[in-house]
Amino acid sequence: MRTTITIDDDVIAQIEDLRRREGLSLKAALNKLLRAGLQYQGQPPKPRRYRTPTRRLGLRAGVDATRLNELADELEADGFAAGDSR
Fold it and tell me: Rounded to an integer, what distance in angstroms lies between the CA atom of residue 16 and that of residue 14?
């Protein structure tokens, strides 16, 4: 089917970029983009799951992780005694 359409400058720039990257004709690029757009009509694309990278932080030798709350309490008490009102 032949028809005449008006394409905005920013859109035609993206189409031309696609044509250059993939070596397509204008017709092929437009058909590819229209098919891709029509595929998602009415349904948003599924978001990709984000995974947070993890790593071991580790503690220095001699630090007992089960007693860190005691250390925090001691530091808070020392700060209170010194007049620090954080």
Answer: 5
82 falls within a domain: no
Domains identified in the chain, total number:
1
Report how far residue 15's alpha carbon sits from residue 9's, in angstroms, rounded to the nearest whole number.
Answer: 10
How do residues 49-85 score in pLDDT, each as one tens digit?
A: 999 998 887 778 887 888 888 888 988 988 888 876 5
CA 65 to chain centre: 33
Token readout for 82 is 């010194």
Residue ranges of alpha helices (H) inside 1-86 are 9-22, 26-39, 68-81
Tokens matching residue 83: 């007049």
Write the Ramachandran bin of 47: left for phi over 0, alpha for psi from -120 to 50, otherwise beta.
beta
Domain containing 30 equals 9-39
List the Cα angle 23/24/28 in 5-degree steps.
165
